[in-house]
């Protein structure tokens, strides 16, 4: 029940919290998410019953979106050409956290009261991060960013009729709020007035702005990118779903050796984040082509894994699979921001996370069904889904807005 509660809340809250960060600003939303996550893990450490345990998962499920807000903040601060490089480095850093986290957590839980120690440790980490966010010079950084980009900022926006204006502290105000043809007050001169970006502005106004942004993204012509993300998310999860069991059944591999193989792949996935920038430059910032090629490579590697006659071929496919999936995730996020506009980056990144969460719900069900036929059933089904994603990209890429897709390549 606790796991289901957390997953369902994450599924529905990701887009809402991301859009809320567009409305009230990155600093306020990030602080709120970190503090409420601190509260959730603190309650988890004090839980003495199942009811309190489930209750503790609610604030974490609703507000544990600090990584998504950080990605949106990075998209505010860097130029479009620098974004893949910075996002790649950020993903590499976060991947290291996901690798070290289970190791530290496993060590702590081995001791008496280890679960509670782990919970309070997580709460302390979130609280320290909140303190760092509070002390960072947000306004100065974003004002500097606005000044350096004022010459070309008016040409940027949501290309699917969800345009918005940049504002102070990383917050945004929609075109509907400023009126057609009007300029945002104080744009590039210190941002909007305090009452327009305050976290304490009327709740109805925040809800209206959040709803408007979500509606504009939902009604935009970006279904193809979100569908590609969903298909590839399910395909990748099917690859990993029964990996340990398949290694044991197919190659009589011991769980310890399988664990080393998974750790090797995870480490490569983290390091691959540093390759995103050079690979993007190699493609001349042609993100659609890079996404297509990385998707084709991922599909081919899943097929080779499903048909692998030896452990060495599995090791080879795992090596390149970690690289291709890391590049693919960065590509699709960058394309979503290109087509939707960085002014709604929180909403777009949150929507992408919600789509991925749907994949996490669907993938175990499909894996269980495919596993009934063969140990190679889940990755074989993943190949089919990846092929569908490749076909969709081949059909849709020529129809995408050429301005948004090739602008960076021409520079």
Task: Kindly summarize this structure in a few lines.
The chain has 411 residues and is mainly alpha-helical.
Describe the structure.
The chain is mainly alpha-helical and 411 residues long. Helices cover 76% and strands 1% of the residues. It is built from 19 helices and two strands. It has a two-stranded antiparallel ribbon. Helix 4 (66-77) packs antiparallel against helix 5 (83-109) and helix 11 packs parallel to helix 15. The longest helix is centred in the last third of the chain and has 30 residues, at 311-340. The model is unreliable at 140-198 and 403-411 (pLDDT under 50).
Report strand order across the widest sheet.
1-2
Relative helix content = over 70%
- The separation of the N and C termini measures 52 Å
Number of separate helices: 19
**Global morphology:** globular
Which H/E pattern describes the elements? Answer: HHHHHHHEEHHHHHHHHHHHH
Q: State mean pLDDT (0 to 100 scale).
A: 79
- Identify low-pLDDT runs: 140-198, 403-411
Most strands sheet? 2 strands, antiparallel
Quaternary organisation:
single chain
Question: Which value, in Å, is the CA radius of gyration?
Answer: 22 Å
Protein name: Major facilitator superfamily domain-containing protein 9
Organism: Nibea albiflora
């Amino acid at each position: 029940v606790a796991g289901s509660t957390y997953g369902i809340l994450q599924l529905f809250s990701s887009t809402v919290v991301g859009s809320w960060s567009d409305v009230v600003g990155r600093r306020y939303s990030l602080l709120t998410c970190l503090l409420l996550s601190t509260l959730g893990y603190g309650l988890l450490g004090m839980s003495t019953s199942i009811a309190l345990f489930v209750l503790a998962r609610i604030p974490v499920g609703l507000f544990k979106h600090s990584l998504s807000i950080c990605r949106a903040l990075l998209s505010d601060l860097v130029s479009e050409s620098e974004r893949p490089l910075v996002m790649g480095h950020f993903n590499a850093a976060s991947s290291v956290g996901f690798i070290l986290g289970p190791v530290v957590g496993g060590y702590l839980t081995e001791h008496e009261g280890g679960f509670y120690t782990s919970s309070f440790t997580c709460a302390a980490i979130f609280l320290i991060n909140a303190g760092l966010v509070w002390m960072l010079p947000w306004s100065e950084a974003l004002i500097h960013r606005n000044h350096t980009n004022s010459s070309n900022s008016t040409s940027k926006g949501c290309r699917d009729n969800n345009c918005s204006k940049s504002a102070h502290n990383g917050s945004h105000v929609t075109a509907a709020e400023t009126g057609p043809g009007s300029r945002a007050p104080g744009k590039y001169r210190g941002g909007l007035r305090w009452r327009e970006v305050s976290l304490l502005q009327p709740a109805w106004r925040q809800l209206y702005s959040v709803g408007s942004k979500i509606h504009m993204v939902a009604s935009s012509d970006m279904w193809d990118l979100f569908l590609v993300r969903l298909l590839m998310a399910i395909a990748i999860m099917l690859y990993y779903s029964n990996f340990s069991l398949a290694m044991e059944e197919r190659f009589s591999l011991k769980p310890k050796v399988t664990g080393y193989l998974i750790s090797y792949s995870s480490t490569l996935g983290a390091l691959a984040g540093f390759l995103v920038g050079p690979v993007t430059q190699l493609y001349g910032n042609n993100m659609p082509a890079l996404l297509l090629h990385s998707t084709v490579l991922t599909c081919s590697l899943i097929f080779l894994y499903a048909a692998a006659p030896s452990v060495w071929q599995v090791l080879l496919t795992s090596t390149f699979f970690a690289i291709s999936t890391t590049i693919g995730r960065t590509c699709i996020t960058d394309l979503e921001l290109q087509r939707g506009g960085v002014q709604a980056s929180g909403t777009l990144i949150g929507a992408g996370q919600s789509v991925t969460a749907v994949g996490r719900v669907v993938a175990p069900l499909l894996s269980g069904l495919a596993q009934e036929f063969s140990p190679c059933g889940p990755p074989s089904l993943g190949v089919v889904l990846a092929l569908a994603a490749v076909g969709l990209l081949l059909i849709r890429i020529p129809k995408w807005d050429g301005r948004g897709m090739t602008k960076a390549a021409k520079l």
